[in-house]
Write a structure and sequence with these properties.
By secondary structure, the chain is an alpha/beta fold. It is built from 13 helices and 19 strands. Strand 9, helix 8 and strand 10 (265-270) form a beta-alpha-beta unit.
């Protein structure tokens, strides 16, 4: 691990000065003291960072990135396919959604046209697609499509028979985004206190209710008593922020069956899970794909190079005129990066490979972390390229110190909030170390990450 001093920067003396000033100018999203490190380069799974702490200012470290760029760097850093796509994408026009685009047309036809790559999930001719800047924006559009489904935009009134459909069902522990329309879908009080609440009293009011995730009995009871008012269900096929929680086998298919039987829209938030479970989509089980009315994907979709999302909706779901216009709707540059990245993933069999690497990684995490450091880690969950290792109560109180020790051990990782206290006597879910690897990660790289995390856990004592 290199500790060479940082090179000089003629603009402002030592780069550490620029980095420190720029860090102070950047909004602190997390409230607590920032990690005193800044990234100055990277390749593949490696990040080169500079230490900004007073005691070690200018020290350079090489870290293995166990976060995949906040779960977005599909092929790691600096992959040649992505670099080539970015270069090509700058020379193919800047049209928005008003004009057609060859790059957009080729992407959508490859994915959703006859014989398309994703037609097992989305049969050709039955879905249409829109792009957005982020997963939150994609979920906002999905919610708009849900609300428009009960409204007649020409006559400006409810669609006949939809007057009582005023409830959206979400799940305890869910994370769908921080934007105003999405915060009500989060059941944790911290995320909602002090912010506006939905209007539940007017003629177009919306109620949001929450169920325990993955509980078939609770789902059956709810539909038996409340389906007549239910407009939509919004679900993550694997809950991310809650601690990488998977539902029991058959749960997602039963949810889809109940929604279809009671004319309720099913929205799958696959922003996080897209391309991370050994398949393109996590809305599936042993019997194959599980149908949805709307699916939102993001993060891995942009290959770590562009921030983008995609909303895939049944063709009969639409918005009033100009109600979905956006500058960022599948611009040619984004489409070039998405298409080239997806073609590479498919040609190289990276989904299957990542699933194999992930299965071995999960075993290693259980042995090396939970088995040998039970004072820090308590359970391993997840699948494929997306795994979580839950912390103990004691370790959860020392996340800041643990993150520092992990960096000193040569690994950068992130922590999810955990589901916290859940209803119905379900056990408390503590914050969880999330490990997301690029689809290009090898088994030796995964093993090295585990070894470095274990070293960080030892140093926490």
């Amino acid at each position: 691990m290199s500790t060479a001093p940082a090179a000089r920067d003629d603009r402002a003396g030592e780069p550490t000065g620029v980095l420190s000033r720029g860090t102070d100018l950047h909004l602190n999203h997390y409230g607590a003291a920032r990690l005193p490190f800044a990234c100055v380069g990277g390749s593949g799974l490696e990040l080169e960072v500079v230490d900004l702490s007073p005691a070690h200012q200018g020290r350079r470290l090489r870290l293995l990135d166990a976060s995949a760029g906040y779960a977005s760097a599909t092929l790691g850093t600096g992959h040649p396919v992505v670099r080539t796509a970015l270069t090509r994408g700058t020379g193919i026009g800047n049209v928005t959604d008003e004009l057609g685009s060859l790059e957009r047309a080729e992407l959508l036809d490859r994915l959703f046209g006859p014989g398309g790559l994703w037609t097992a999930h989305f049969p050709a001719g039955r879905y249409h697609v829109s792009g957005r800047n982020s997963g939150s924006e994609g979920n906002e559009l999905a919610l708009r499509l849900v609300l428009e489904s009960r409204f007649d935009g020409r006559r400006l009134r409810h669609r006949p028979g939809r007057e009582r459909r005023d409830t959206v069902l979400a799940f305890q522990g869910a994370w769908h985004g921080w934007t105003g329309g999405l915060v009500p879908l989060l059941n944790r009080r911290y995320y909602r206190a002090g912010l506006p609440t939905p209007d539940t009293t007017g003629p177009y009011g919306v109620r949001v209710e929450h169920l325990p995730f993955g509980d078939p009995e609770a789902l059956a009871r709810y539909f038996a008593t409340s389906a007549d008012r239910l407009l939509a269900v919004v679900v993550e096929p694997i809950q991310g922020d809650a601690g990488i929680l998977r539902p029991p086998p058959g749960y997602l298919r039963e949810l889809a069956r109940r929604c279809a039987a009671d004319d309720v829209l099913l929205v799958a938030d696959e922003v996080l899970t897209f391309a991370k479970t050994g398949h393109w989509f996590a809305m599936r089980d042993a019997d194959g794909p599980v149908s949805t009315d709307i699916t939102v994907i993001g993060k891995f979709l942009g290959m770590g190079a562009v921030s983008t999302s995609m909303v895939i909706a049944r063709k009969d779901l639409a918005v009033r005129s100009s109600g979905a216009v956006t500058t960022s709707d599948l611009r040619p540059l984004n489409c070039a990066v998405i298409r080239d990245g997806i073609e590479h993933i498919d040609a190289e069999g990276l989904l299957r490979r990542s699933a194999d690497v992930g299965a071995k990684l999960a075993e290693h995490l259980d042995t090396a972390l939970v088995g040998r450091h039970p004072e820090v880690f308590t359970a391993v969950r997840g699948t494929g390229a997306m795994l979580g290792v839950e912390l103990t109560a004691a370790a959860a109180d020392r996340i800041g110190a643990l993150r520092r020790e992990l960096i000193e051990a040569g690994v950068y990782a992130e922590f999810m909030a955990g589901a916290g206290k859940r209803s119905g006597g379900r056990r408390y879910i503590h914050p969880t170390l999330r490990i997301v690897l690029p689809l290009t990660a090898t088994a030796p790289q995964a093993d090295e990450i585990v070894d470095r995390v274990a070293a960080g856990a030892r140093a926490l004592r």
